[in-house]
Inverse folding.
């Protein structure tokens, strides 16, 4: 699979960058529309997004670099060659969450009121973003056979994309994209019938954490800390934090009612 869409001399436009641009644009549009319905002003969303997007990208890059530090210490300039790849979604989520906590406090906006919208935009971005991995020929699973890929009725272009140097691999990018698509539907249904602040954020953390933990176990290009897959460790923490939020919000609401 050719990762480049267009080449103009030495300038290359990659599928991954175009997909990221689409994901950020769509996410911003949805954040704006859903934010308005929740009484969050356009001015706040514009200001917030202008900071959030670069902070998330920088966080995703720093996170990746930290877990490939030996390589980057041997070539410091490679840290800035982002077109060569190297973004980790968990780093972007962490950086975005910390900034959102700071910015909502500064602007007197309820944190979970915003994150309940934000995670819906995020999961849409994750659905799209995994296709960037496909075009880059990365985020694939263990070896498999052509007959297996045919048996799960994949389109030919995906099957051919999973033929890497003559070997067929599991399309884990697709597994995660579909998992997130189902998650998006679940979140939208819950959001429609339950308006409790923090619920959508909690369910996203638990749902995405479970899916990422399971699928990460299949991937061949995981960031590692010794024998531990970092993404699986972070996924466990996301699940635990999501469960904590569910329990805490319930007890908090009960306490409010008693008062």
């Amino acid at each position: 699979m050719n990762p480049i869409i267009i080449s103009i001399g030495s300038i290359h436009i990659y599928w991954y960058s175009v997909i990221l641009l689409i994901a950020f644009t769509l996410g911003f549009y949805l954040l704006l529309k859903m934010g308005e319905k929740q009484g969050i002003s356009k001015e706040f969303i514009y200001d917030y997004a202008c900071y959030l997007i670069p902070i998330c990208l920088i966080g995703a890059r720093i996170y990746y670099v930290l877990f490939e530090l030996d390589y980057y210490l041997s070539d410091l300039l490679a840290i800035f060659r982002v077109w060569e790849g190297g973004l980790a979604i968990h780093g972007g989520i962490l950086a975005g969450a910390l900034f959102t906590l700071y910015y909502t406090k500064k602007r007197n906006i309820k944190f979970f009121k915003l994150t309940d919208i934000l995670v819906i935009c995020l999961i849409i971005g994750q659905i799209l973003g995994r296709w960037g991995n496909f075009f880059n020929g990365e985020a694939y699973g263990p070896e498999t056979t052509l007959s297996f890929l045919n048996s799960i009725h994949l389109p030919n272009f995906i099957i051919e994309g999973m033929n890497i140097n003559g070997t067929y691999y599991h399309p884990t990018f697709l597994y995660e994209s579909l998992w997130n698509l189902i998650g998006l539907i679940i979140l939208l249904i819950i959001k429609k019938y339950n308006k409790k602040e923090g619920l959508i954020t909690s369910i996203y953390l638990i749902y995405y954490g479970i899916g990422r933990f399971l699928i990460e176990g299949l991937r061949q290009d995981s960031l590692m800390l010794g024998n531990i897959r970092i993404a699986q460790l972070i996924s466990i923490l996301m699940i635990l934090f999501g469960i904590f939020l569910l329990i805490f919000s319930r007890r908090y609401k009960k306490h409010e009612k008693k008062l």
